[in-house]
Design goal:
Two copies of one chain form a homodimer.
Chain A lengths: L5 H10 L14 H8 L3 H13 L3 E4 L5 E4 L8 H9 L23 H4 L4 H18 L3 H10 L3 H16 L3
Antiparallel strand pairs in A: 1-2
Helix pairs in contact in A: 1-3, 1-4, 2-3
Chain A binds a DNA duplex (39 and 39 nucleotides) through helix 3.
Chain lengths: ~170, ~170
DNA sequence: GCGATGTTACTCGGATACTAACTGTCCGAGTAAGCCAGG
DNA sequence: CCTGGCTTACTCGGACAGTTAGTATCCGAGTAACATCGC
């Protein structure tokens, strides 16, 4: 389907709420984040598990556990998040068509397999441009942009929502 | 799976053999190209059908029919081919998570839906870089590179292969 | 000799499997904080 | 007091179902070049 999965979309949106968390608020749990964003809980849990394995977030278990960023948001790029969740997959998968050419019937055509296929070179170069672009954006920068585009009171509303959810569990 | 399909790979490899076709050789058919490259015939037929609808190649029907480039190879970019075959699909599909936030319970949150989501902006910018990179390569340039990387006699071998296939049909 | 007919090799287009990946759900296990009772 | 067990709300991890997109195959229809046959 799409090259960047919805898991990345869920993850990024939720990660933004882990940036600049006030001291008074404990680490949000997956349930907190999922219900806040309106995304499926169990699926988001898998996403955050991948983020943890990639070393982007830390998890504390047990009651009042939750997630927090493993390093400063300035040091986490969008590319980091994409790779953590979707894996390091390419936009193109070279099938090495060169080696199948009918003119060399039988013999394995030594030259056709050596070096990289020019077509895949073009694709991989394009992918590099894509990833360079993603790597230019950090969570810090992204959060700044998002908050700037929201009404000023919204961020406070979210924080009190998170706090209430911790106080009156169900 | 991959953002750029194997159909594109098949199509590109076959299109290269339509560039700089000597006058003596008639338009190759899909069967010619498919067997030359070792790719499934019927699937390649669909690929070339898309290329035709996109105006990149022209088809002549009937016996001794086949395909030829619709315009000079300098004016056909890799991006043209990708879009013709895979359609103009994005690497990302924004689900508009913003509008689902739990803090505005019920009311539709006017501000959350206006403007573009910052996250999708990043993704679409990255896609633009990707497409810019693909658009920099023309079929002419690509063909030149490929031929330069092959033994000099290979191109002749292919041409005689095509010619024989036309003479002794089966 | 010449026109009608048939054959062949194409493209065109729809219908249909098969496979893999993405998305989402369910459930059991381990873990830590807080509470509570029993010594 | 305080120590051990219980409850609770988390994360962790595997298994699995539903859906979708990509890949591939099959078949019928239309088309044009060419050969063949009958007049």
């Amino acid at each position: 389907m799409t090259h960047i999965s919805t898991g990345v979309e869920y993850g990024l949106h939720c990660l933004l709420y882990l940036v600049n968390l006030p001291k008074g608020i404990s680490n949000p749990s997956v349930r907190d984040l999922a219900e806040l964003q309106g995304v499926p809980i169990e699926y988001l849990a898998k996403v955050f598990n991948k983020l943890r394995k990639a070393g982007l977030v830390n998890a504390t278990e047990g009651v009042s556990g939750g997630y927090r960023l493993a390093r400063p948001s300035e040091n986490i790029t969008v590319l980091d998040v994409v790779r953590a969740i979707d894996g390091q997959k390419g936009i193109f998968d070279c099938k090495n068509i060169r080696g199948r050419c009918a003119v060399f019937i039988g013999q394995s055509s030594a030259w056709a397999s050596q070096g990289t296929c020019k077509i895949s070179s073009i694709m991989y170069e394009a992918q590099t441009r894509l990833e360079e672009s993603l790597a230019m954006h950090t969570l810090a920068h992204l959060t700044y942009q998002v908050i700037a585009s929201e009404p000023v009171e919204h961020q406070d509303s979210v924080m009190t929502w998170l706090q209430r959810r911790r106080q009156y569990r169900h």
